[in-house]
């Protein structure tokens, strides 16, 4: 009987110390991500796909144009992880759809981008013209 009471009390005592992720809400994409990006290893001028573009408040790629509503910043092991929450429209869609873009800085000025952690892909910055 005594053990059951303890088993019921322990989770209540531990619950306030559970790990939580602090998310800082930003109004814009950090400046380090602004610019034109191409998949790592491809040429900015000779690629089949045009570079994607990231500004403080917009994300544009071959398939869609997105307006960034807000950006979440979460601490990661190797630095901050950003998640842009966007409304995107394509030529065929009259109504914008909701989308997310994860942005992670890598070494050597590269970034990882993707809609979720499983789809992250490395990108290199295209030189300014």
UniProtKB/TrEMBL annotation:
Residues 1-21 form the signal peptide. Keywords: Signal. This is DUF3617 family protein. It comes from Methylobacterium dankookense.
């Amino acid at each position: 009987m005594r053990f059951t009471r303890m088993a019921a009390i322990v989770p209540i005592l531990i619950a306030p110390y559970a790990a939580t992720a602090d998310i800082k809400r930003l109004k814009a994409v950090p400046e380090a991500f602004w610019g034109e990006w191409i998949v790592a290893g491809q040429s900015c001028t000779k690629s089949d796909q045009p570079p994607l573009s990231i500004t403080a408040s917009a994300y544009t790629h071959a398939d869609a144009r997105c307006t960034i509503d807000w950006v979440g910043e979460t601490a990661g092991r190797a630095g901050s992880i950003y998640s842009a929450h966007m409304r995107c429209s394509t030529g065929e869609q009259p109504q914008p759809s909701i989308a997310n873009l994860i942005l992670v800085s890598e070494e050597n000025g590269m970034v990882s981008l993707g809609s979720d952690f499983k789809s992250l892909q490395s990108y290199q910055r295209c030189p300014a013209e």
